[in-house]
Design brief:
Layout lengths: L7 H15 L7 H17 L9 H22 L4 H16 L2 H12 L3 H11 L2
Protein backbone atom coordinates (compact mmCIF):
# COMPACT_ATOMS: atom_id res chain seq x y z
CA UNK A 1 0.00 0.00 0.00
CA UNK A 2 2.81 2.43 0.86
CA UNK A 3 4.19 2.08 -2.66
CA UNK A 4 0.80 3.05 -4.09
CA UNK A 5 0.85 6.27 -2.06
CA UNK A 6 4.31 7.21 -3.28
CA UNK A 7 5.94 6.41 0.05
CA UNK A 8 8.47 4.23 -1.72
CA UNK A 9 11.01 4.28 1.12
CA UNK A 10 8.34 3.06 3.56
CA UNK A 11 7.46 0.31 1.11
CA UNK A 12 11.10 -0.66 0.61
CA UNK A 13 12.03 -0.72 4.32
CA UNK A 14 8.83 -2.55 5.29
CA UNK A 15 9.65 -5.28 2.79
CA UNK A 16 13.21 -5.52 4.06
CA UNK A 17 12.02 -5.69 7.66
CA UNK A 18 9.51 -8.41 6.81
CA UNK A 19 12.25 -10.49 5.12
CA UNK A 20 14.55 -10.01 8.12
CA UNK A 21 11.89 -11.12 10.58
CA UNK A 22 10.86 -14.13 8.49
CA UNK A 23 14.50 -15.21 8.30
CA UNK A 24 14.87 -14.90 12.09
CA UNK A 25 17.41 -12.10 11.69
CA UNK A 26 17.63 -9.05 13.95
CA UNK A 27 15.41 -6.23 12.63
CA UNK A 28 18.27 -4.10 11.26
CA UNK A 29 15.99 -2.01 9.04
CA UNK A 30 13.56 -1.03 11.83
CA UNK A 31 15.14 2.39 12.46
CA UNK A 32 15.13 3.27 8.76
CA UNK A 33 11.48 2.19 8.47
CA UNK A 34 10.54 4.24 11.53
CA UNK A 35 12.20 7.35 10.08
CA UNK A 36 10.64 6.93 6.62
CA UNK A 37 7.23 6.25 8.12
CA UNK A 38 7.47 9.28 10.39
CA UNK A 39 8.29 11.52 7.45
CA UNK A 40 5.47 10.09 5.34
CA UNK A 41 2.92 10.45 8.14
CA UNK A 42 4.04 13.99 8.94
CA UNK A 43 3.67 14.89 5.29
CA UNK A 44 0.17 13.46 5.07
CA UNK A 45 -0.81 15.27 8.28
CA UNK A 46 0.26 18.60 6.81
CA UNK A 47 -1.66 18.18 3.59
CA UNK A 48 -5.20 19.43 3.47
CA UNK A 49 -8.00 19.24 0.98
CA UNK A 50 -8.77 22.53 -0.78
CA UNK A 51 -11.92 24.11 0.65
CA UNK A 52 -12.81 20.95 2.54
CA UNK A 53 -13.15 19.08 -0.75
CA UNK A 54 -13.00 15.32 -0.30
CA UNK A 55 -13.57 14.21 -3.89
CA UNK A 56 -11.33 11.51 -5.34
CA UNK A 57 -9.43 14.19 -7.29
CA UNK A 58 -8.34 15.66 -3.96
CA UNK A 59 -7.19 12.25 -2.78
CA UNK A 60 -5.21 11.86 -5.98
CA UNK A 61 -3.65 15.29 -5.49
CA UNK A 62 -2.70 14.38 -1.92
CA UNK A 63 -1.10 11.13 -3.10
CA UNK A 64 0.81 12.98 -5.78
CA UNK A 65 2.04 15.57 -3.26
CA UNK A 66 3.30 12.84 -0.94
CA UNK A 67 5.02 11.13 -3.87
CA UNK A 68 6.61 14.39 -5.02
CA UNK A 69 7.89 15.19 -1.55
CA UNK A 70 9.23 11.65 -1.10
CA UNK A 71 10.97 12.03 -4.46
CA UNK A 72 12.58 15.30 -3.33
CA UNK A 73 13.79 13.62 -0.15
CA UNK A 74 15.18 10.70 -2.14
CA UNK A 75 16.99 13.01 -4.57
CA UNK A 76 18.45 15.08 -1.75
CA UNK A 77 19.63 11.94 0.06
CA UNK A 78 21.32 10.72 -3.13
CA UNK A 79 22.78 14.19 -3.68
CA UNK A 80 21.24 14.14 -7.13
CA UNK A 81 21.18 17.45 -9.01
CA UNK A 82 17.64 16.60 -10.14
CA UNK A 83 16.62 17.74 -6.64
CA UNK A 84 16.96 21.32 -7.89
CA UNK A 85 14.18 20.87 -10.45
CA UNK A 86 12.02 18.84 -8.06
CA UNK A 87 12.37 21.60 -5.45
CA UNK A 88 11.43 24.22 -8.04
CA UNK A 89 8.25 22.26 -8.79
CA UNK A 90 7.42 22.03 -5.06
CA UNK A 91 8.52 25.53 -4.12
CA UNK A 92 5.04 27.05 -3.71
CA UNK A 93 3.44 24.20 -1.72
CA UNK A 94 6.50 23.91 0.51
CA UNK A 95 6.59 27.66 1.11
CA UNK A 96 2.94 27.60 2.17
CA UNK A 97 3.48 24.76 4.65
CA UNK A 98 6.84 25.70 6.17
CA UNK A 99 7.69 28.67 8.32
CA UNK A 100 9.42 31.40 6.31
CA UNK A 101 12.78 31.05 8.06
CA UNK A 102 13.00 27.28 7.54
CA UNK A 103 11.88 27.60 3.94
CA UNK A 104 14.51 30.29 3.33
CA UNK A 105 17.22 28.05 4.78
CA UNK A 106 15.99 25.13 2.66
CA UNK A 107 16.02 27.20 -0.53
CA UNK A 108 19.49 28.54 0.26
CA UNK A 109 20.88 25.07 0.99
CA UNK A 110 19.54 23.80 -2.34
CA UNK A 111 20.91 26.86 -4.16
CA UNK A 112 24.30 26.15 -2.52
CA UNK A 113 24.06 22.48 -3.56
CA UNK A 114 24.17 21.50 0.12
CA UNK A 115 21.76 18.62 -0.38
CA UNK A 116 22.56 16.95 2.94
CA UNK A 117 21.83 20.19 4.75
CA UNK A 118 18.67 20.70 2.71
CA UNK A 119 17.45 17.20 3.58
CA UNK A 120 18.06 17.85 7.26
CA UNK A 121 16.12 21.14 7.13
CA UNK A 122 13.26 19.52 5.22
CA UNK A 123 13.03 16.55 7.57
CA UNK A 124 13.05 18.85 10.62
CA UNK A 125 10.29 20.96 9.10
CA UNK A 126 8.16 17.86 8.56
CA UNK A 127 8.38 16.70 12.17
Amino acid sequence: VAGNLGATEVHQYAGTLERELRAGQPPASQAALDQALGIALATVARLSFPSGDSRPESLNAMGEAVADLADLQRLLAKQDAAAIDRFAALREPLASRMDAESFGHLAQAIDDLDFRGALKILNEALK
